[in-house]
Every structure is written in C-alpha cells, then in structure tokens.
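Hi R.,

Here's the chain you asked about this morning:
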Amino acid sequence: MIAPDGKTVYATTNAVCDAASCQGTVTPISTATNKPGAPVKFTVTTGGAIGSQIAITPDGKSAYVTTGKP
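And here is the predicted structure, written out as tokens:
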C-alpha cells in the first residue's frame, strides 16, 4: 500500500500464528531512497491467518492491517 502523499510504501511480513493470535510486522519503505524504516510489530488476537491487506487513512497518520477472519 502506498501512502496518500506517495512518499512511503507499507509492506507486511508473513505472520506467525497459533490458535489464539497472529504476530507480524508492517515495514515502511521510502519511495525516494527505497530504504526500509523501522518495522512496526503487531498482534491480532482473533486467530486465523493474517491477510496482506493494508488500509491507510487519507491523512496518512494511521494504517490498518486486515485479518483472514471477519
């Protein structure tokens, strides 16, 4: 997913899941330098697989990662 200002691309990693939760990271990558920033770790406690979908708010201040379950 590309941020609204076009300056950053966000990429998810393959998550590690068990029956209760999944843990993964979202890494920001600069489009100007192609260098990654510090990964942001996340945990989803709904169980199931982590999808590769990211939604970014129009102001670019928040990103949301979807899960494989509703």
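One quick note: Residues 55 and 64 are 5 Å apart (CA to CA).

Cheers,
M.
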